[in-house]
Amino acid sequence: MEMAPETEAATGEATSLHQRILADISERILSGEWAPGHRIPFEHEFTEQYGCSRMTVNKALSQLAKAGLIERRRKSGSFVSRPQSQAAILEIHDIRVEVEALGLAYRYERTSRHERKSSQSDREFLGLDASEPMLVLEGLHFAGMRPFCREERVISLKAVPEAAVESFLEVAPGPWLVARVPWNSAEHRIRATAADEATAAALKIAAGSPCLVVERRTWSAGQPVTHVRFTYPAHSHTLVARFAPSQA
Fold this sequence. Notes:
The protein is an alpha+beta fold. It has helices spanning about 10-30, 45-50, 55-65, 95-100, 120-125, 175-180, 195-205, and strands at about 70-75, 75-80, 85, 105-115, 135-145, 145-155, 185-195, 210-220, 225-235, 240.
C-alpha cells in the first residue's frame, strides 16, 4: 500500500531518504553493478524497500534522470543510461561541477606530491627546450563514496612558481590553476586503455578494465603550464562535444 506524502514534520527524514536513495542508485550505476540498459526497480519497489512515499522516490529518480544517469520511459520503467561529461572535449571544466550535477557529494583527495626535474617525457609533452623544475601531483576525485576519476598532473614551476608552496590538500590543482594562470591555449587527447594495477587499485575496479583517458596540455602566453591525465572507468563516462557547421 502506498504511503501518504510526507508531512512538514517529516521533511528532514524525507530529505535524508531522498539522498540515501539517490546515493544508493548512483553507486550501483557508477560502480558498473547496473550496466547501461539495465532496468532499475519500479517506484513501488523502491517505496517498499525504503519504507517511504512514492513522492520521495519520484524526486530521486527525477534528479537522476536530469543528471543523465537514468532514462525514464513511459509505461516501461527506468533504465540506466550512460553518464555524460558535457563539453569536456572543448572546455577546461571543473570535475566538481560534473559530479554535483549527478546529485552526488564531491571530494578531492591528493594521494602524492613531490618536486623533480623535468623528465624526457615532460619535455616531449610540454615542448620544453631544457630541464625545468616540475611539481608532480596525483589525486582522486570522488562522487559520493566512489572514486570518479584519477588525476596525474605535472606543473611547470617556472611558469607557476607559487605552486611550490601550495599543498593541494584543500583544493584540486585544476581549479587552482584556472583561477591563477590566464591560459590561452590548450590541447586535449582522448584514448581508451586498460587499467593497470595502480589505476585499478585507485579507482576500485578490476585490473584490465576498460578506461577512458583524457590528457590535456595547457599554455599561457606561449609558455607551457601543465600536463594532466584524467582516467575514468569506461562504463561510467562518456565525452560529449556540441558543435555547429562552420560558416563560409
